[in-house]
Amino acid sequence: MPLDVVTGNHAAGHALSLAGEANRVGRGTACGIYPITPQTEIVERVAAFPFSRGRVVAVESEHSAMGVTMGASASGARAFTASSSNGLAYMVENIMVAGFYRLPIVMVAVNRTLGPPWNIWADQGDTLMLRDFPWVQLYAADNQQVHDLTLLAFRLAEDPRILLPVLVCMDAFIVSHTQAETELASQAQVDDYLPALNLPHRLDPSHPRALGSMVWPAATVSHRKEIDEAMARVPTVIRECRSAFLEIFGRDPGGAMEIFETDDADAILVASATVATTARGVVERRRARGERVGLVTMRLFRPFPADALRAACSPAGRIGVLDRDYAAGVGGIWAQDVRAAFQGRGDRMIQDYLLGVGGGDVTPDLIERIVDDLMARADGDAPVWADLAETWTTAPAAEVDA
Known about the structure:
This protein folds into two domains: 4-249, 3-Layer(aba) Sandwich (Rossmann fold), CATH 3.40.50.970; 257-391, 3-Layer(aba) Sandwich (Rossmann fold). It has twelve helices and 15 strands. By secondary structure, the protein is an alpha/beta fold.
């Protein structure tokens, strides 16, 4: 298909709209929308789409946007929405409820710094704060990935083995408002990829049932265990969704992670979204100089692909985690999960680097300095605030036994 030059927001809105229209042979589609910079263009595009069997409901708040979306999903419609930053924070109660209701909602989130102080630039802290909720989380690095992962998200969420909502994330402005060549799907392709939704626990007036009623503790434990089992199936189902996507669209949307030059690496960077794109260029230059540096680009955050990450990083003694986020008192959120994945393996030195927090520029020079620091370290230490030049210190060279 020909390439279109579109923004990340355009790519997301296009994918959401075609996915919703594809369910016209089922119970249709619906979504609740509320604008917030920098995702507003997504819902504007969706609102302008001529759905054959669907409704776009403009509401007074993000909380209500997810409320409408949940109601649509519970009735068996294909449901979706979009938000960002403090909008996600306002929506958080219903985000939690959607997950526990096992509703296969897809939400596109444009990663923006949480305020105050108010800041509209890229920071992953808004979606990562949802890490303990039963939502699958996917992180896109460019416009094509936004488009493709959004379509994949519907097939994944609606699979009867999963039936969990999915969050597709992209960096504010760097992707959301930047135009790039993107292959946009046709309606016929999306119709082939996304079968009509058949939600087994949808509300049906002919068979009344309670939704979210009061239960005893034992029932809650059983409910949470079922969610855990569904989460454990996500990597397998993603591989199947990926294979079907390649067959229909002729391109690979990518899986849980992308591995680059890790087979013989002494040091590996772990990054996500656009930070990983910049890091890849640095790794290529280091490799050209004969340095054994690798990169793992994370797309799947929840469930965290610990086994796959351990396998990818098995050759390396040093792992540097690049976090575009901050959790008070502990540092980067990705680094917490990376450390947990390697718990009990004392042969790995893991160092957390905070960069681009609050939307600061992530430059090749900054990542070059991080690689220098990582290669010189003997032990991991407190998170390094890489953006703060005045506090930057390079670790002393590691002693090497003769």
